[in-house]
């Protein structure tokens, strides 16, 4: 079955998730809604190509996971995948048990 191509991407967003006001020696991060955490723009295809290349060529240098973190990683994956399928449906789909990045 053929699927329609994903829509054109907007300009890449600039994220500055810091609390407003004067500088203070603290992180000062603020919460963002899930839709903003998974937003991507015109540079997304190039970023994904770079990630795939790095994982293919230098996986041990760019990916690490501690033993015992499997449950937390799975929980995070399910939350993010659910959001991407609901909010970014033109770009993501389920292919069996795999999340397909179109």
SSE inventory with pairings:
Layout lengths: L33 H4 L6 H19 L7 H18 L4 E4 L2 E4 L1
Antiparallel strand pairs: 1-2
Could you explain the architecture of this structure?
The protein contains three helices and two strands, in the order αααββ. The chain is 40% helix and 8% strand. The model has no long low-confidence stretch (mean pLDDT 83). The chain is mainly α. It has a two-stranded antiparallel sheet with strand order 1-2. The chain has helices spanning 34-37, 44-62, 70-87, and strands at 92-95, 98-101. It is globular.
The biggest beta sheet is recorded as: 2 strands, antiparallel
Strand content: 5-15%
Question: What is the alpha-carbon Rg in Å?
Answer: 17 Å
User: What is the number of strand segments?
Assistant: 2
Oligomer: single chain
Average pLDDT, rounded to a whole number, is 83
Given the C-alpha coordinates, what overall shape results?
Answer: globular
Compressed to H and E, one letter per element, the order equals: HHHEE
Residue share in helix = 40-55%
Order of strands side by side in the largest beta sheet?
1-2
What low-confidence regions span 5 or more consecutive residues with pLDDT below 50? none
Q: Tell me the span between the first and last alpha carbons.
A: 14 Å
Q: How many H/I helical runs? A: 3
Computed structural class: mainly alpha
Concise summary:
This protein is mainly alpha-helical.
Core attributes:
mainly alpha, 8% strand, 2 strands, 102 residues, globular
């Amino acid at each position: 079955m053929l699927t329609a191509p994903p829509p054109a991407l907007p300009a890449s967003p600039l994220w500055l998730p810091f609390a407003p006001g004067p500088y203070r020696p603290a992180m000062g991060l603020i919460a963002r809604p899930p839709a903003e955490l998974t937003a991507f723009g015109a540079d997304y295809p190039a970023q994904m190509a770079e990630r795939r290349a790095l994982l293919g060529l230098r996986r041990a240098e760019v990916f690490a996971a501690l033993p015992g973190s499997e449950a937390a990683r799975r929980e995070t994956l399910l939350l993010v995948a659910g959001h991407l399928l609901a909010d970014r449906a033109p770009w993501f789909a389920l292919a069996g048990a795999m999340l397909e990045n179109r």
